[in-house]
Design a protein that fits this description.
With about 160 residues, the chain is mainly alpha-helical. It contains seven helices and no strands. The longest helix has 18 residues. The two termini are about 60 Å apart.
């Protein structure tokens, strides 16, 4: 059975088609546009060569946490004060400095940090400042590092 179907397709202009490919590949062989080329051999990659490691992008939460911890390392860590007169900050102050604004990354980083503090130090902590002020520098740093690892693992 032969059935003819009407379509609204415009016929292809072979010269226009060749020009389009010429724009994609500016230096083709002239014969390649008019003759059928044989397929190229597949590229062979030696199996003993290590592949390039995948590129891992840093998420905004991880970046905020990492920048805040770097801020604490550079300027110092404080208790009972958002900003110490000598420039040190508490954990929430470092988060604010790193985020620059109370944006989504700031909120998510704070929530992740507080969640990690609760994991390590009990569920009783209501806020980052109350947890920060009740622990040693080493304990606080441990929570920061764990929160950064979680952000990396979660790719956020």
């Amino acid at each position: 059975m032969n059935t003819h179907t009407e379509t609204d397709f415009t016929p292809i202009d072979p010269d226009l088609y060749a020009k389009a490919f010429q724009l994609l590949d500016p230096a083709p062989e002239p014969a390649a546009l008019t003759t059928r080329a044989t397929p190229a051999a597949p590229v062979q990659v030696p199996l003993n060569q290590p592949a390039a490691p995948p590129v891992r992008l840093t998420g905004p939460v991880e970046k905020t946490l990492t920048d805040a911890l770097t801020f604490l390392d550079t300027h110092g860590w404080a208790r009972h004060s958002l900003v110490h007169p000598e420039g040190a900050r508490c954990s929430i102050g470092a988060l604010r400095a790193a985020a620059g604004a109370r944006n989504a990354a700031y909120c998510d980083a704070g929530n992740l940090l507080l969640d990690e503090a609760r994991r390590q130090h009990g569920k009783k902590w209501e806020t980052i400042p109350s947890w920060n002020d009740s622990h040693s520098g080493a304990q606080v740093r441990s929570v920061w590092e764990a929160a950064i690892r979680r952000a990396q693992h979660m790719n956020i």
